[in-house]
Amino acid sequence: MQWLVVLPLEIVAASITLQYWPGAQDTNAAAWVTIFLVVIIAINFFGVRGYGEAEFVFAIIKITAVIGFIILGIILNCGGGPNGGYIGGRYWDSNSVPAVYAGYTKNGQPAGSIASGAFNHGFKGLCSVFVTAAFSFAGTELVGLAAAEAQNPRKVLPTAIKQVFWRIALFYMVALTIVSLLVPYGDARLLGSDGSGAKASPFVIAINNAGISGLPSVMNVVILIAVLSVGNSSIYGSSRTLCALAEQGQAPKIFAYIDRTGRPLVAIGVASALGLLCYVVAGGAETANTALNWLYSLSGLSSIFTWGSICLAHIRFRAAWIKQGHTLDELAFTSQAGVIGSWIGFILNCLVLVAQFWTAVWPVGYASMSSTAIAKNFFLAYLAAPVVILFYVPYKIYYRTPFMRTAMMDLKTGRRELDTPLLIQQEREELARLPRWKRIYKIFC
């Protein structure tokens, strides 16, 4: 569910992103989404190689743009932009009055009178954005799905997994911190109060505020590519998951069909068909924004269940591995954070679900909201939870599936013959003979 709804969501987002340019606004949005949908589906019908090659090109563009923005953001924050002026941490100070905010209003007030702050609406304000944050941070689990189609996952997966940490630390945390220093939280363009989602990109707003001409359009192109990249990944992720569920008897068997080139064609077809939901953009900008909100509410909270399940599965796997007489030396790769890391991750995911329920039932400003508005807010914030429960509980009751004991878990099915203890030991001995600097490098990368 997390990935099935991402395809139409991202194509809708791409069509809204195009509204940044006046010329695109004169074109029927349905024409743009048709082009995006056809391109993404075509890439995935080339199989894992086509997906990989496309993502390689997309990644180069995104990485280059993010690194460039980080450097530019530091310069702008220090007052090096055309508009000049040292910004520092003024937008984190609730008592500051941002000068660069002139010309924009919120709730009809003069822009200069609007204060900013790092934690708007306090702790509840922080909790209220968990769904959006979860949706934005999801996707790293695709590394695990790709393992099934890698020629030698024992060698390539550890490197890919380690790089996930650095990607999150650099491209997510650093870039978002710089954005928060450059853009006031109450900017009307950021909130999309003018109905134009394209102008809501904080990266574009930061560059616009600095008075740099031309570059906002370049950044918007990068955002468009990033959006389509996620849509591309969504078909890959959802189709492989559907195929795996079918092989385990948890989805219709037809989804398990794989052609001679290794493509789960039926699953790809179903995932692609869900993309037709993107034609809601034909109803206008308001309809598109409404559809965007509902789709990402489904996907965002689903990612919390996904990662909570991943952490719990790792905890249970390691318990079963030891219980059945195995040692960690037999594993080609072990998580650096170990079981403790998974426990921390599982508990934090549970706490996010609790906090999200709190803000869904009692949203910010609920005292002045109507009962209809509160109900709508609840389902926007917590829609995925009842859907997950309605799938899981009836399945568990109808099929009477047991809660597996560690001693009874199947740890052999699906394990490749290449992953033998002898080969693993040989590779570790080769690693031990490397120079010290290279061994240290291998620990982190």
Describe the fold and architecture.
The protein is mainly alpha-helical. 63% of the residues lie in helices and 0% in strands. It has 18 helices and no strands. The radius of gyration is 24 Å and the shape is globular.
Question: What's a concise summary of this model?
Answer:
By secondary structure, the protein is an all-alpha fold.
Radius of gyration using CA atoms only:
24 Å
For the largest beta-sheet, the strand count, sense and barrel status come to: none
Helix content range: 55-70%
User: Structural class of the secondary structure composition?
Assistant: mainly alpha
Could you give the distance between the termini?
A: 32 Å
What is the string of helix and strand elements? HHHHHHHHHHHHHHHHHH
Mean pLDDT score: 82
Q: Report the β-strand fraction as a percent range.
A: under 5%
The total strand number stands at: 0
Q: Uncertain spans, ≥5 residues at pLDDT below 50?
A: 97-115, 193-198
Shape: globular
Number of helical elements = 18
List the helices and strands and how they pair.
Elements: H1 6-17, H2 22-25, H3 29-44, H4 47-77, H5 122-127, H6 130-137, H7 142-147, H8 153-182, H9 188-191, H10 202-209, H11 215-247, H12 265-273, H13 285-323, H14 338-361, H15 371-382, H16 384-399, H17 421-432, H18 436-444
